[in-house]
Design goal:
Elements: H1 3-17, H2 21-32, H3 37-45, H4 50-89, H5 108-122, E1 126-127, E2 133-134, H6 136-139, E3 170-171, H7 177-189, H8 191-195, E4 203-212, E5 223-233, H9 238-252, E6 259-267, E7 270-279, E8 289-298, H10 300-305, E9 314-320, H11 322-330, H12 337-340, H13 343-346
Parallel strand pairs: 1-4
Antiparallel strand pairs: 2-3, 4-5, 5-9, 6-7, 7-8, 8-9
Helix pairs in contact: 1-2, 1-4, 2-4, 3-4, 5-11
Bound molecules: 3,4-dihydroxyphenylalanine.
3,4-dihydroxyphenylalanine (DAH) binds near residues 267 and 296.
Length: about 350
Amino acid sequence: MNELDALVESARAGFAQAGTPADLENAKARYLGKAGRITELMKGLGALPVDEKKSRGAAINLAKQAIETALAERRQALADAEMLVQLRAEALDVTLPGRQRGQGGLHPVSLTLERIEAIFGSMGFEVAEGPEIESDWFNFTALNTPEDHPARSMHDTFYVEGGSEKAPNLLRTHTSPMQIRHAVQHVKRHRAALDAGRSMPEIRVIAPGRTYRVDSDATHSPMFHQCEGLWIGENVSFKDLKFVFTDFCRTFFESDDLVLRFRPSFFPFTEPSAEIDIQFQHGPLAGRWLEVAGSGQVHPNVVRNMGLDPERHIGFAFGMGPDRLTMLRYGVNDLRLFFDGDIRFLAQFR
Ligand code: DAH
């Protein structure tokens, strides 16, 4: 092996030993740098006679090219190795099952409330909402409920601290106070027309929301839902109540042959009053009478508290339990499931 071949060999070995790009640059300097071996050889050319200079120069150039090629290869090899390390470090295991995006859904009672609103909406009822902390006036007095009515006792009603004659001082025990609140606003807007002997648009409203009572077992929760309904006009009768509520129940339960029964009852704010029972003709509950609402013709005292003349305005009201409707619709047998927040239960409704 001549001297130049040996030099190329030693450069290759030097480059191979370099484990990092910095080592490689150092090794390069030994051969190709200003004071490197090749450079030195080139400088030595000057001392040679002309004819030797040419062939010697060409040989050195070949060696130089070989070293440069070896350098480039080693550079690439180091870069590839570095890339491999990085790829390994950043490797993704695409076979992992992955984190699922949580899929939410509406609470079953919310589904029922939406359904109630849609069905009554299609019959021209608006939706009103009102406060859950209510005053004695709206919750009881305005609804013709006397001072000594048992519903007013501490056993039945959550009272809130403070409270004066006008201030809210209890958690509403039903959505019925919304009858008064909504009607008073409605009548106020049409006062002038009424005073001039003209008619007002009918009051047709439902009022869904949370209600509270001191009560807790498989079918009672201290917090529960109600939905009030009210239709007041100049010629609204009990038969309209029967039609509207029958139509609602049949649509809600998607059962055209559902049978309703209006069972005489008593509420201070209606006269006459009725409990509404339904009877399925098919399915697991077929044949049983199930109570779903209270209802009646709005009592003249209540009509008066709305700011209307009971000789002229008349109508009906009802109050139903969306929790119970939800239980019947989905076959849930314990009311508490709705409020425990157990995701295994709730996920079944999404
Ligand atoms: N507020 C009554 C309750 O909580 C339900 C009710 C009965 C509402 C008759 C009404 C009605 O509007 O007319 O038990």
